[in-house]
Structure formats: C-alpha cells, structure tokens
Specification:
The complex is a heterotrimer.
Chain A lengths: L7 H4 L16 E2 L16 E4 L10 H4 L7 E2 L2 E2 L12 H5 L5 E4 L9
Antiparallel strand pairs in A: 2-5, 3-4
Chain B lengths: L1 E8 L4 H14 L3 E6 L9 E9 L14 E4 L19 E5 L4 H7 L6 E5 L1 H9 L5 H12 L4 H15 L7 H12 L3 E2 L7
Parallel strand pairs in B: 1-4, 4-5, 5-6
Antiparallel strand pairs in B: 1-3, 2-3, 6-7
Helix pairs in contact in B: 1-4, 1-5, 3-4, 3-6, 4-6, 5-6
Chain C lengths: L2 E5 L1 H12 L3 E4 L7 H11 L6 E4 L3 H13 L4 E5 L1 H16 L5 E6 L13 H5 L6 E4 L3 H15 L8 E6 L7 E6 L2 H8 L15 E2 L6 H33 L6 E4 L6 E5 L2 H15 L4 E6 L1 E3 L3 H8 L4 E6 L10 H10 L7 E7 L8 H15 L9 E4 L4
Parallel strand pairs in C: 2-3, 2-4, 4-5, 5-7, 6-7, 11-12, 11-14, 14-15, 15-16
Antiparallel strand pairs in C: 1-8, 6-13, 10-12
Helix pairs in contact in C: 1-2, 1-6, 1-7, 3-4, 6-7, 6-8, 9-12, 10-11
C-alpha cells in the first residue's frame, strides 16, 4: 500500500466495480466526496432561473439544502443541476418571481 | 512425577501455597504445575489446589486423582471431604493438627503410607501473629517432597515473599520464621520417622 | 536469549502485551480474563508500557474503543471471555468488515447459561463467523508465542483482519507452568511496529471508515473480506516460520502428534490436547497406532490441509468443547466432516462433545475413547452416530 493521497473517485470505484477494485474495509478516501454524487437525478421538478427578474438579493442561496446555488462575486449563478434535488424552497422564498418550478425536470443535469 | 493435592478452605492460602511450591520447584530446575480447583473461591468453602512436579515437561491438564501426597490445611475437612480419595497406597498425608499423634492417626485408619502432623496454626500464630497455616505447611511439604534442600528453599522463598509482599515487607520476616520452624516441625504419627 | 520462567497463562499473555507495548488497550474485566487488564494496569502504573489504557463501562464499549483507536492508525487490543465476548458481537463483525487489525486475548469460558465461569469454547465458537482469525493455545507457552505473532498476522497487507488468541479459562489461564520468555527487545523487535498508510487522524489524507454500503457494494465487500481470510493461511505460516527462525519454537496451522502410521486419531484443540497426548503416548507404548491432531488455527479453517493429514486414518474422533445444539454435535465436528467429505472419504468419524463447563477430561478418558475408536473402525459407517457426549452423568 502506498502513502499517496487517493480518493475513491480518483480510483474510479462505482457500483460496477469488481471486488478486487474496492478499497479495504470500504474506506472512503478524500474529503468532500459528496460532490461526486449525482443527486440531480432525484428531481421530479426543476427550478428555472429567470435572471431578468432576479435582483440578486441572495435570499435563495442560504436556504438551498444542497448548496446548489453557486455564488461568485456576491452574485448568484445558474443552478448546479448535478446536485439540485428540485425541492423548490428557493422558488418559495424568492420575492421577485425569478425562480419557477418546471415539471419536465431532468434537463440541465451537469457535472 | 510427584503429584500433590491440597485440601483447604477458601481464605486459608492453599492455592497460594501450591503456587509457592511450584516456584520453589521451578528454582531447582523442575517442570512444574500449580493450580487451584477451577471455580469461584468463597471464604470458608472447601477448595482444592494441585501441584505436579517433574523433570520432564508436563503435558497433562487435568486435575489430580491419584496423588502421591495429600495436604490437609484444615483438619475439619476430614470426613466432610474425601481427602484420601485416590491417594497412592505408599503415599503421604500431611495434616495441620494440634491433636495428639494417635488421634490424627485414627482419622486415617488402614492407610499404609506415612502420616505427618504439624501444628501449623500454632507456628503461624507465634511467628505471624495470626492463623495462616499455609506457610508452615508449605515448608513441610517442600521437605517431604525431597525436591529442594533446606537452605535453597529458604532463599527462594525469601525472594518470593519480598515480591509477593512488596507492599508490606514487614511480614516477610514472620513468614520466613514460620518456614524455618516448620521445616523439621512435622511429626510422623503412624510409625518411625523415616530419617 | 530465551529465559526460563514460570507463570500462569494470563500472566504470560500480559507479558507478551507488555513487550509489544500496544498503543491502546480498552478492556472491561470478566473472569477468567480479568487478570490480563489487571497486569496491564500495573505495567502502566509502573511505567513499563506507554499504552493508553481505556477503562470502559462494558465490552461493547471496549470493542468500540478498539475500533476507533485502530481506525485512527494505532495498535489496539482487548481481553475478554464468555458473556463479555458476546456483548462485543455486533462490534466483532464491524471490526472485521472495517479490516481493522485489532488483537484480542480471549480466555475461553462457558457462555451462559447456565452461568458458569469454567472453560468451554462456546464463547469464541459463537464468534466463529464474525470474520476474526482464531488461534487456539494448548498452554501458557503457546498463548505467549501466539500473542507475539498476532499483530504481524493481523496487520499484514494481505490480511488486515482482527485476530483472537484463545486459551482455556483457568486450566491454562490460572495455572502456573514453565515457560520460556523472550528478551523484551527481541520480542518487541519481532512484533515490530504498525504504520498503516491511511488512518482517521492523518491530516494529509482524509478517510471515512465504516460507511453505509448500498447493496451493489456488499457482496463485493464480503468477497474481498473472505479472500483476505483465505490469504491469512499463508501469512500465518510465514509469520510462524519467522518465529521459529527467531525463537526456535515452530508452529503450523495444526500440530500432528505421533500421526506416523496412526490408525486411530483425535482432533482436538487447546489444553485438553496436552492431556490427550499423554494418552497417545501410553497407547503407543502398548502398540496401539494412536495419533492426534491439535488444531491451532480454527479461522481460517485449514480444510484441505486437515484432509491431507487425516487421510489413511481408520477412525477419527473430533473433539468439540462446545455444544452446537444442532442436534448433530458441535461446530468443529461439522467443519471437519466438511473438510473430509469427498477429499478423505472412508474415515469412520464421530464427533465428541466433552468438557463442558470445565468438566475435567482425564488421560484415562482419552485412553478409553481410543478404545472406542478401535471398535468404530470395524463398524459400517451407517452404524456410527454423528456425535455423542462424553463425561456426563447418565
């Protein structure tokens, strides 16, 4: 065994991996590896951001349970659809109608 | 192989005596076993302890059923426990007793081997200030077993006591005195002395 | 240099632990293993070891603490018996699945009920499917030697499994016997150190231990664990070979005692093997072709090796010091039959359940058993019962 720092993601372990490829004891290496987990495919409804209505008040950002609203330079960006589960809390808190929940929800999933 | 069975009551030190005898025998280069009857020890309840001493490695791990020597630490056990059970016909019995030789001998009527009595309680009370009969008996058994000489035995035991009583070294001298007094303190109660 | 000494099995194991000086010991006292943590506490108080001794409120906590310590990358040990081991059960499986090389000094005692403190293998046999390597000791010397080897087996990169070193409660744990103790430096050098590549407290490499495994992973996880147990067989032999080279005392997966040309054989574990060997010696003197196999390593189970060793025996008694309540005898009996079936057929085999609750087994009992085996050798297999009990009052 080597001392190299490795993550399961870097080792390419997934549900198709053979038994020899698993880590010993199922150890999960590396921090923050939930970022690799696609929870975007849990959605039945997807939020759609309408920048034309958005005042960048950032009320939506702190309420997102999945940290799926990226913020850069104090301005929110478009949704992280790889992780957004489509809960709709952001749409509920938005005072300006800048977030709409749409049912055809799987689009937009990206890594 | 010499096999010895100790009969005592919980708290009288029969197990400790067996372990110390094993210590002494070990120092002479023998292979030894010293073990109690396996079970919960309860103060006053009859207990048994055993010794095997041999010049070859000892493999057997059972209790002793046909001992060469039986040591009765508490004579009130005679009758309550079959202390003579399986004792070899030419074996020896050592009894802690203050009674007259004839009375001790009567207890083992028909036994053809040698019966020794020692007033271990008296020696203990005089040397240690309390009734701990195991120390004097240990000395008697060590001599009768023939495995160790007098001076070597005292030397080994002094070392063992200093370790065992590291927290109360003041009792070592009393224990040593009890050993010294008991070495020749046993009386053959059923015949002429063998030496 | 080996030094002659005399001590009880518990003291011998405690001395091995002192020489190994593990990082963490978490233990809860239970007869007859209590003396081991007692000695450790004294060693600690006397400054003889640097071990962190964790006093816990139960054996469940003891094994939990060992798991946490081991996952943090240090050597963790415990000692227990009987109900204490039973209280650890949940965690025994976790330790093995997490591939944590914890070492346990197990002092075999009857698992209640009826409640009893004397020896029986029902405690460790109950844990036989937990994924722990199990090594059994005949006497204080073997308990000491096996303990010195335990960490190197457990921590070997091909293995990474917990190990329990078993000895019989009271019969060896509390009996003073002769023993050869190795020098502290030599023993410590043999046991070596432990420096796992990954552990919980490494700031350079974060790791999560014991994650929930969804079904797509569980089968593969257990196959990997099973393969580690298969590989352990060779590692156990390699470590034993190095031990023999270093200290002169040799060990295998099992010991064959006077098996040359043996027609009647016992397969037996732990302290009773010594008593049975005396019976073999007596019978050989009378010209009876008696032999004995003493199983040392029960997990991994050396099935193929046993079949090879027993081939040619006419009648065999497999001695179980625990009742499996399978209505067909004990666990060792079942596994030995498994080993022989189709590989060494034709051996007239009976499983004997004996010595429960410390019931004494004498040399004479084993001599009589060999006599029975001689009778079984001439019987049709259909007439031989799967098992019987030995030593009980009728």
């Amino acid at each position: 065994m080597s001392k190299e720092i490795k993550t399961n993601k870097m080792q390419g372990i997934c549900e198709q991996s053979g038994w020899r490829e698993l880590t010993e004891g199922g150890f999960v290496y590396g921090e923050g590896n939930s970022a690799f987990f696609n929870t975007g495919d849990w959605r039945t409804k997807a939020p759609a951001w309408r920048p034309e209505n958005c005042k960048q008040c950032l009320l939506c950002y702190p309420v997102c349970p999945d940290s799926s609203i990226p913020v850069e330079n104090s301005k929110r960006q478009d949704f992280d659809m790889f992780h957004c589960k489509g809960c709709g809390i952001c749409a509920k808190v938005c005072p300006f109608g800048a977030i709409a929940m749409e049912t055809a929800g799987k689009e937009g999933g990206r890594e | 192989m010499i096999e010895i069975r100790w009969h005592g009551r919980g708290g009288q030190g029969a197990k400790t005596a067996a372990l110390l005898l094993a210590d002494a025998a070990f120092e002479t280069g023998l292979y030894v076993q010293g073990f109690p009857e396996y079970g919960p020890e309860r103060m006053g309840a009859p207990i048994t302890a055993y010794n095997r001493l041999d010049d070859a490695p000892i493999r057997v791990h059972s209790n002793i059923y046909e001992p060469d020597m039986v040591v009765v630490v508490d004579e009130t056990l005679i009758g309550a426990v079959d202390v003579r059970g399986g004792l070899k016909p030419a074996g020896r019995i050592v009894v802690n007793s203050s009674r007259a030789a004839a009375r001790v001998s009567e207890e083992f009527a028909g036994f053809e081997g040698e019966i020794y009595a020692v007033d271990a309680a008296d020696i203990s009370i005089r040397c240690l200030g309390k009734n701990l009969p195991n120390t004097p008996l240990l000395s008697v058994v060590a001599r009768l077993s023939g495995i160790i000489g007098e001076q070597e035995f005292f030397k080994v035991m002094e070392g063992a006591f200093l370790e065992k009583f590291a927290a109360k070294p003041e009792v070592v001298e009393g224990n040593m005195n009890a050993l010294r007094e008991a070495w020749n303190g046993a009386v053959l109660v059923n015949g002429d002395r063998d030496e | 240099m080996s030094k002659k000494n005399r001590m009880s099995g518990n003291e011998a194991v405690a001395n091995a632990i002192r020489q190994i000086d593990p990082d963490v010991i978490a233990a809860f006292p239970i007869t007859p293993s209590t003396e081991i943590p007692q000695y450790i506490s004294k060693f600690k108080a006397d400054g003889l070891i640097s071990t962190e001794f964790v006093t816990v409120e139960s054996e469940h906590s003891a094994m939990s603490a060992c798991i946490g310590a081991s996952a943090s990358g240090v050597r963790a040990m415990t000692a227990t018996s009987s109900a204490g081991m039973a209280l650890m059960y949940e965690l025994l499986y976790v330790a093995a699945s997490d591939r944590l090389p914890i070492v346990m000094a197990a002092v075999n005692r009857t698992l209640s009920g009826p409640i009893n403190i004397n020896t029986e293998h029902s405690d460790s046999m109950g844990a036989r499917d937990s994924g722990w390597i199990q090594i059994y000791s005949e006497n204080a010397q073997e308990a000491y030697d096996n303990m010195l080897m335990a960490h190197r087996i457990a921590e070997h990169p091909d293995v990474m499994l917990p190990v329990m070193i078993c000895q019989d409660g009271f019969i060896t744990s509390h009996a003073i016997e002769n023993i050869l103790l190795e020098d502290d430096e030599a023993a410590a050098a043999f046991a070596g150190g432990y420096d796992p590549p990954h552990h919980l407290l490494d700031p350079e490499s974060s790791v999560a231990v014991g994650p929930y495994s969804v079904s797509p992973y569980v089968m593969e996880m257990k196959v990997a664990q099973a393969n580690a147990m298969i590989r352990a067989r060779k590692v156990i032999l390699d470590v034993a070979a190095d031990f023999e080279k270093t200290f002169g005392r040799g060990y295998g997966l099992f010991e064959e005692y006077r098996m040359e040309g043996a027609e009647l054989a016992l397969l037996i574990m732990s302290s009773a093997a010594g008593t049975a060997k005396v019976a073999v010696d007596r019978l050989r003197e009378k010209g009876v072709k008696a032999g004995l196999v003493k199983l040392r390593v029960f997990r991994p189970f050396p099935a193929a090796e046993l079949a090879a060793a027993l081939k040619g025996v006419r009648a065999l008694a497999v001695m179980d010091r625990s009742e499996g309540f399978s209505a067909n005898g004990g666990p060792l009996g079942a596994e030995v039959r498994m080993a022989l079936y189709g590989k060494a057929d034709g051996i007239k085999t009976i499983n004997i359940v004996f010595g429960l609750g410390g019931r004494d087994a004498r040399v004479e009992d084993f001599e009589a058993l060999y006599g029975e085996l001689a009778g079984l050798a001439g019987k049709p297999a259909a007439d031989i019962p799967y098992f019987k009990h030995m030593g009980q009052r009728e």
